[in-house]
Specification:
By secondary structure, the protein is of the alpha+beta class. It is built from ten helices and 18 strands. It is elongated and about 80 Å long.
């Protein structure tokens, strides 16, 4: 069947209603069961369409949704990957789970990040079933848990043997073709000092002063070096101080202080270097006083990959994606994304991956989160074109 015929079968109202239904289901870290309800909702929906679907238990009642439309071994396999969780609603959101359409946009928690993409992805499966498309290669939809809290679901997916020839992650890219993003490492600097009465500070070792010295040294010695390290489409490496806590009483020399750091690193760096550069500065600070000691704690799982993501622009998947988007009448723009995503996990597992989804990252996590209706339509068409181009159909 020609792809134009499938496009003609797209019912815009049905697509919008599907995304609205996804938004109505809370699925964040403060919700009892977190993604439990939405996983079951998506499973039931896909099953009602006749799609082969299973729930993969990740932890407790939290499950990845894995749907498969089997091909005839004459094309390559493709996975459409979307996370089912969102961040919690902001305090200014009056009714975050009541979707509203205004001025050509659909508003609600998760509209952009990323229930819009999830809706578009599973709607493509509906259209393929409705149009009785026979695929050449296998097609998967993987609805994963815990992306917003560390990429738990996709990490579990690949550790348990999931593989496909290619993957598309539906983060909000404004329908740009994203081929690059930075890695992330979150560290906590812990400094121990020596308590003393505030009237006799010379008898103590102030941990807050030590951390202040550490911050100034990082600003002077390390950050200028980071500005020299870059990655295509995403800019330079960065370091941000996020949380600081120290001391116990106002009339005591602080004997402890903690500082959390967010370090975004690029593909010319390695994790050991990222950590050792910070360790060296901490060592310089603490060696000034024998009463001072410091350590660095990683806030990420030690067995997980949170490094940079990059796929060459001349890679087969990128070239194929460009061809597919041209079928929709879109001239794809190659770009990068500043934040980390599950694409890094998939790519690190040997699955070539791109990011492509409706919505803007500027809207993600905001109190007025929304996605353009036209982008939902075009995202669905793009996913269909990718399926036809990669898997093949008749």
């Amino acid at each position: 069947m020609e792809i134009e015929k499938v496009f003609e079968s797209l019912e815009e109202e049905k697509l919008f209603n599907l995304v609205e239904d996804l938004i109505r289901v809370p699925s964040h870290s403060d919700t009892p069961g977190q993604e439990r309800e939405i996983s079951r909702f998506v499973e039931d929906l896909l099953r009602s369409w006749g799609v082969d679907v299973t729930l993969q238990k990740v932890e407790d009642d939290r499950c990845n949704v894995i749907a498969k439309m089997e091909g005839h071994n004459v094309g390559k396999s493709l996975a459409l990957n979307g996370h089912l969780d969102t961040v919690p609603p902001g305090q200014a959101m009056k009714d975050p789970y009541r979707p509203v359409i205004e001025n050509g946009c659909l508003h609600g928690r998760g509209a952009s990040d990323m229930k819009g993409a999830v809706g578009a992805m599973i709607y493509t499966l509906y259209l393929l079933k409705r149009c009785r498309i026979n695929l050449g290669g296998d097609l998967y939809f993987t609805g994963v848990v815990g992306e917003e809290t560390g990429g738990t679901g996709t990490r579990f997916l690949v550790r348990n043997g999931f593989r496909s020839d290619f993957a598309v992650v539906g983060e909000p890219t404004n329908l740009d073709l994203v081929t690059s993003h930075k890695g992330v490492t979150r560290l906590e600097i812990r400094v121990r000092g020596k308590a003393a009465h505030a009237s006799m500070p010379e008898r103590g070792a102030n941990a807050i002063n030590a951390v202040s010295d550490f911050i100034q040294r990082v600003e002077k010695e390390l950050i200028p070096e980071l500005h020299k390290r870059s990655q295509e489409q995403v800019g330079t490496a960065t370091l941000t101080f996020g949380v600081i806590q120290g001391g116990t009483k106002g009339n005591m020399v602080a004997d402890s202080c903690r500082l959390q750091i967010d370090r975004r690193w690029v593909k010319t760096e390695v994790l050991t270097q990222v950590v050792s550069e910070i360790e060296d500065i901490l060592h310089k600070v603490c060696e000034k006083d024998p009463a001072l000691s410091g350590e660095i704690i990683s806030l990420h799982p030690s067995d997980a990959y949170f490094g940079p993501f990059a796929i060459p622009e001349n890679h087969e998947l990128v070239r194929t994606a460009k061809q597919a988007m041209n079928l929709v009448g879109i001239s794809p723009k190659i770009s990068g994304m500043p934040c980390w995503s599950d694409a890094a996990t998939l790519m690190n597992a040997g699955i070539p991956t791109i990011l492509l989804g409706p919505g803007s990252l500027d809207q993600a996590h905001t109190d007025d989160e929304c996605v353009e209706l036209d982008q939902l339509i075009n995202a669905t068409k793009c996913y269909l074109a990718l399926i036809k181009t990669i898997c093949g159909w008749r």
